[in-house]
Design goal:
single chain; about 325 residues; alpha/beta; four-stranded parallel beta sheet; 13 helices; globular; disordered N terminus
Length: about 325
């Protein structure tokens, strides 16, 4: 993750160079200094180029920040464009994913000069089979391909690209439509025939490469709905013991079995009614006891995006809106 100090340094550099453009040109500064003016020499050297420490921060920047650095000055643009190590692991996420096209993707990946190692495209609906195939043909050494939510891709096109990547180790296709009938073929190409370790729910979005538990393919056939989706095991110890004895099976995708957003265990809404939750996620009874509560309705929330209220809790969105309506009605009343 990029350091806040690194981002502040880039912002300071942008402001400094913008002020430099407002100053007289370099030739006029030299003439002023040579004619006996008191123009300080260190002021002239200040704009000679970025500090060397700034170049060491480039590998820690996200894709959107790298494009911002390219606009600072010619030296940084040259450093970003000519260092293919910065482009060996490309990740396109929101908000860039909403505007990404095949031509944009080819332009970004071409900076790796055929050395692309991993490509992460999250919810990039504008990417097609033809566009991704051009990237694969130019970078045959890709070991990780993650395309969750890329609805413009087809299962046939993905299998065709996997066949062109002999070094591919992991792939994520969660959210690609109609993958159920092609999952067996994809498993055979990646030799995913070994027993999988348990996969636990870690909160949405679950299409991060860090949540795949080193499995070659992220999706499995859900034992409940028989669709190719992310399948999770239950974290509750009681459920683990029951599954060993085959007394109960709470293993399945998120749509078939609700999961607690904090612990990943199965949630029974008969025991944990949704009326006690202020956010849009599910919570088990144990985790509900530890989350902040609304100071007005006592509903719990695991979301960070809540309105600040009293130190002991917060005011949920429903209570906040009802308060506003009451205040508006009092103002309108004579």
């Amino acid at each position: 993750m990029p350091s806040p100090l690194c981002l502040s340094t880039i912002k300071t550099m942008e402001e400094t160079l913008q002020k430099a453009h407002q100053e007289p040109s370099a030739n006029s500064q030299m003439s002023l200094f040579s004619s006996g003016s008191s123009f300080p020499q260190d002021h002239m050297q200040r704009f000679s180029g970025p500090h060397e420490a700034l170049f060491y921060s480039l590998p820690y920047l996200y894709l959107r920040e790298l494009f911002g650095v390219r606009r600072v000055c010619k030296s940084l643009r040259q450093a970003v464009d000519e260092d293919d190590l910065l482009w060996q692991n490309v990740r396109v996420d929101v908000p860039l994913s909403r505007k990404l096209t095949d031509d944009h993707l080819l332009s970004i990946t071409s900076k790796a000069r055929g050395k692309l190692r991993s490509l992460v495209l999250i919810d990039c609906g504008g990417i097609t089979d033809a566009g991704l195939r051009r990237v694969v043909d130019d970078n045959p050494h890709i070991t990780g391909l993650y395309v969750p939510g890329c609805t413009g891709l087809s299962p046939t096109g993905i299998i065709n690209m996997v066949e062109r990547l002999p070094k591919l180790e992991r792939i994520a296709v969660h959210g690609v439509l109609n993958m159920t009938d092609h999952l067996e073929n994809l498993n055979s190409l990646l030799h995913d025939n070994h027993p999988r370790p348990p996969t636990y729910y870690t909160g949405r979005p679950s299409h991060s490469p860090l949540n795949l538990n080193k499995n070659p393919i992220d999706v499995q056939i859900c034992p409940k709905c028989e669709e190719a989706r992310l399948v999770f095991d239950c974290t509750r110890e009681t459920c683990k013991e029951k599954m060993k004895k085959k007394q109960v099976s709470c293993r399945g995708c998120y749509w078939c079995i609700s999961r607690c957003e904090l612990c990943g265990g199965c949630v029974d809404f008969d025991d944990e009614p949704p009326e006690l939750i202020a956010c849009q996620h599910a919570l088990c009874s144990n985790c509900w006891l530890g989350v902040p509560k609304c100071v007005m309705c006592n509903r719990g929330s695991c979301c960070r995006d809540v309105r600040n209220g009293e130190p002991a809790g917060f005011t949920c969105a429903g209570c906040f809106l009802s308060q506003e309506k009451c205040l508006e009605s009092e103002d309108e009343s004579p």
